[in-house]
Amino acid sequence: MTRGIFITFEGGEGAGKSTQIRRLAERLRADGRDVVLTREPGGSPGAESIRALLLNGEADRWSPLTEALLMNAARRDHIERVIAPALARGAVVLCDRFADSTRAYQGAGGAVDPAVIAQLETAVVGEVRPDLTLIFDLPVEDGLRRALSRNGGEERFESKGAAFHERLRAAYLAIAAEEPQRCVLIDATASLDAVEVAVRAAVDPRLGA
Ligand code: Z5A
Q1: Given this model, what pLDDT does residue 208 score?
Q2: What residue's CA is closest to ligand 1, atom 26?
Q3: Ligand 1: does its nearest atom lie under 6 Å from the Cβ of 164?
Q4: What residues have CB less than 8 Å from 35, skipping those under 6 apart?
Q5: Which stretches of the chain drop beneath a pLDDT of 70?
Q6: Which residue, among 149, 136, 131, has the nearest Cα to 205 in the 3D structure?
Q7: Ligand 1 and 193: CB distance under 6 A
Q8: Residue range(s) defining the domain that contains residue 153
Q9: SS3 content of the chain, % helix, strand, coil (to 5)
Q10: Does ligand 1 come within 6 angstroms of the Cβ of 14?
Q11: Nearest Cα to 100, choosing from 18, 16, 36, 10?
């Protein structure tokens, strides 16, 4: 069976994922590759509708368990309608956040039982696991400053407080340490161009480039 390559970008707020995933997509398209650039929550029409429910409103609008269920509902639709068909035709799928975000935000951040998070992940993601995950790491205060200057105001997850964001950072570092075959830690404090070089160094060997 043909299978493309599935690459996910992860990290806390303002880490620079979205900027770098766009740069990577542009470069790979210029090389003539079939690239699908997508994001979570969202990426398919149904999942984008769920995204609107998740990202708007008060910080405590949903309990962490309800959030985990909504994230997984969106993810399943995204996998069925976008990710799995793209991988089946051999595309490079670049996804801004995926299941590690649920482990970090709802698991470590929201204190949902890790066993529940893992069961949901097994049921929803199945075999559609990332081949490579880039984890963008930077101090919490730097990331929040960047995210706030970009948005001009707090959004739902950004308003959850420094302790929440410190738990996220620790969770991502733990995932990188536990799954070194899949994960590459990226120093997100570096300049835009230096981060792009680090992304290229992580991605190109996996593409045989
Ligand atoms: N979420 C969840 O809880 N559970 C889940 O399972 C999933 C998601 C899938 C989605 O938000 C939210 O959903 C997210 C987690 C939660 N929480 N929040 N907020 P989103 O899609 O709206 O945004 P995000 O993914 O969180 O993006 P972000 O972290 O806020 O930003 P980013 O993509 O990492 O960074 P950026 O937009 O590329 O850069 C931010 C600013 O910094 C921008 O002005 C850049 O020009 C600047 N920047 C970037 N890189 C640099 C460097 N290297 N130097 C200086 N300045 C830089």
Answers
A1: 87
A2: 13
A3: no
A4: 25, 28, 29, 91, 92, 93, 94
A5: 1-2, 151-159
A6: 131
A7: no
A8: 5-207
A9: 60, 15, 30
A10: yes
A11: 10
Residue 39 confidence (pLDDT):
98
User: CA 126 to CA 121: how far, in whole Å?
Assistant: 7
160 lines ligand 1 (CB under 6 A): no
Answer yes or no: pTM beyond 0.85.
yes
CATH of residue 108's domain is 3.40.50.300
Q: How many residues does the chain have?
A: 209
C-alpha to C-alpha distance for 84 and 125, rounded to whole angstroms? 10
pLDDT by residue (tens digit) across 81-137?
Answer: 999 999 999 999 999 999 999 999 999 999 999 999 999 999 999 999 999 999 999
| 18 ligand 1 Cβ < 6 A | yes
Rounded to the nearest 10 degrees, how much is the dihedral formed by the CA atoms of 11, 85, 128, 175? Answer: -10
Q: How many CB atoms lie within 10 A of CB 108?
A: 21
8 Å CB contact between 137 and 169:
yes
- Residue 160 pLDDT: 76
**Number of domains composing the chain:** 1
Q: How far is the CA of 13 from the centre of ligand 1 (A)?
A: 5
Ligand 1 pocket: which of 105, 125, 160 to mutate (most atoms within 8 A of CB): 105
Which amino acid, residue 205?
A: P
